[in-house]
Fold:
Amino acid sequence: MNLVTELSDKRLKYKVIHRKSIMDRLSDVQGSQSDTKSRKYFSQLWECYTWAAIIGFINDKRVPLGSGSTDNAFKFSVIYNNGGELADALILLSMSKSNKGYKALIDADEIIKVIEEYANGGFEIIQSLLREDEDYFNNPDAFIEELLERKELNL
Amino acid sequence: MIIKSVKLKNFQSYYGEKNKIEFTEGLNIIAGSIASGKSKLFDAFYWVLNDKIFVTGKDWVFTKNLGISFVNDKAKNESTAIDDLIETSVEIVVKNNNERGSKNINYTIRRQFLIKRRELGDCFSSENWNISSSDLSVEYIDKVTSNAEIAKNQEAKDIIEKLFPSKISPYIWFQGEALDKLIDFDNKGTIRKAIDYISYVPLYKIMNNIISEVDKKITNRARKEIGKLTSDISKYEEISKKIEQKNASISNNKQLIEEKSKSLALRKEQLDEVERVLAALVEFPVLNEEKIEIENDLNTIGESIQRLDINERKKFSSLWMLYGTKHLFKSAADRLIEFEDYRQSLISKEYELPEDVPGDVYLNKMLDQEICLICDRPAEKNSNAWNNMKAKLNRKLKPEYLSEENEKINKEVGGFKAKLGSLSRNYDSIHDEILDHRKKLNEAYEERIIYQDKLQQVKDDIDKLYNKRGIDISDGTLTHRKKHGEYKTLNEIITNLNRKIEGTKASIRDAEMDIAQLEGELSKIQRSNDSVKVIEEEIKKYTKYLSSHIANIEESEYNKLINLIESEANMSFGEITSVNNTIDGYIKIDRETFRVLNVDNDGRELENYNTGHYTLMKMCIINSIISLTNEYKDASYPFITDAPTSNLDNKATFAYLQSISETFKQSIVITKDIDENEIDNIKNKDYVKGLFHLKIKNDTGNSVMDRKEAFTNITTIKN
Structure:
């Protein structure tokens, strides 16, 4: 069984507080087809989750989930089936940060764990932005602004 | 008549109730800079008498349509509780000496408007106040009973009409902007009406009518009396009867013409109104089409923004969010390479081990042939040599690089290496894609703003059209069709009326010719006794003379008055223009069209005179009409004017002020054209009897005048 097949059935965990304060706030959980103005920026939970994970990876913020209550609304396969290359990218990013190095490529649980911990770190960064300005992401332009503010490190 | 005082309470910029100006006879000047409350004072005079205020762009607006806009803002802002009551009122005291025996009768005219707080929301919003209608009262001492009386409603309005007759009141109020709305000099009837009011012309008309009636009766009587003295009485009577019938028909026809002319004038007025509406409706479809076009463009822009937005979200959630991860991909690649290097090192290590040789394949071959193929010596089955060879079978372990774990990793590494290659290629385009997307989106937003502004402009133009014409043009096509129908019908009615009038006039001419012929026949019938004088015949001579004479007087009085208006107007015009080099020539009222013209010495119309000159000319005519009214009617009216001199320079302003001080028994001039440092100079001029200064101020010491705190302060300098 290869890695992707193994990952497919695994669920990604996140803290319930992040679901409430960030994911639900920025995603149209019902996937309603309302007009652009009132629509939230992400149409599904996994998009917001993946975005948070990438923010965590970029800022190198890895935070274990700890003991608080968690939730796991979607499987990794959802990202694989909808997110194009994002799922591959997540695996590669996870592998690049894992203490197991390339051996993580045969350790689905390690890949998932690393993604979860960086996503958790990403959520904390987003949370701190929202603490400064509650309406920070109400303007859809803020998402692109956040992208362009990321530093491109050419190592 | 003079205005003794004005008192304002919470009216526009006048806060509280301590706003009183006591005027004197002669010239009263109220000076103040821009936005000091000058025009609001003019509004107050007009409002108390007419229940209307002039609103720029909207014409005269009745109190009921003004909401709470004219209630003082500071007063509104101070309201903090439900049921708070604010009173807005203006009170003027007028001393009337225009009527016989009315000397020293003071009329206190007061209009009051109350609002009561209903909700505690925005205090400047009408929705949060209960509004009552404005309340008019006139207080005076009855000259017969000496009792104090208070008139209200219609009774109060009647008193105001008596004090400021509506025929003359437009000339009492003069405000630059409102001038054309008050007195339309382009309308032939305007000057005629003024003349009718100030002169005896209408009286002459009545006298002429009476004399004509008397003349008709006397002529009939004379004819009858003469008939009795003729040789052929029966023929004389027959012809006389015919003449009487013709006269009766002329009289009927004249009455018919009068009626038809009245109805013609009415129809023409209606036609004017319809033409006005149609003109607006012609403008409306063009504006409306423009509006629809802009709205369509805005829709297209909106759709393209929506497309860009959808595309952005799709791209964001499939690739763009990876932006900034390049260094991490690089370290992922390093790890993949690390594995490949490791694997390669294992493979190299395998080749360094010679004891693996010969391998099982070769050993099995040697065992089969019972010969050592390395040393070429025989090795019989089950011999020591053969058994030695057999023992070497299965001697080699599986190489490390082919271990299950490494094989699995190797597979994944291969797969992810390819994926990383594809990811890197796509990654490199993210930055440009985002910038390109942003550029397109910004362009679309900018375009949307431009089109939104355009739309607002067109909407404003449509609103202006609505306000200017005072008609509802929202249902353009329907109204246009209806109005066009009315236009056609009215034109037909007017044509018919004209035809009828012309026809009736022709009948009158025919009848007059018949009468002349019949009278000729009558005179041929010999009178049997010439010596008998018929008294009616003698009277007839005088009535004929009187009738034609009064008609002449009416005509000449009318001309004289136009001449007088013209020459009086030219006197003030001359005084003002003598100190102002930019305006010259004379005022001329065209006798045909009644237009007011600026002409040179030879009566030729001057070109290139601007609105300012034209306004000044109109002003001089107004001065002249008021002044002649005072002379003719032995009654005087005050002249109240706002910003009359804004088109003039300093010298001309003073000349104008002096001119009106000489023309009117009382004038109140509200002006911004006198600087604060000129006030002392003006104060010492003999012709200035009253001088007041308006200034906007607040109690907070704040230099910025917020409407919630600022109010007009009145200072009396001279009175």
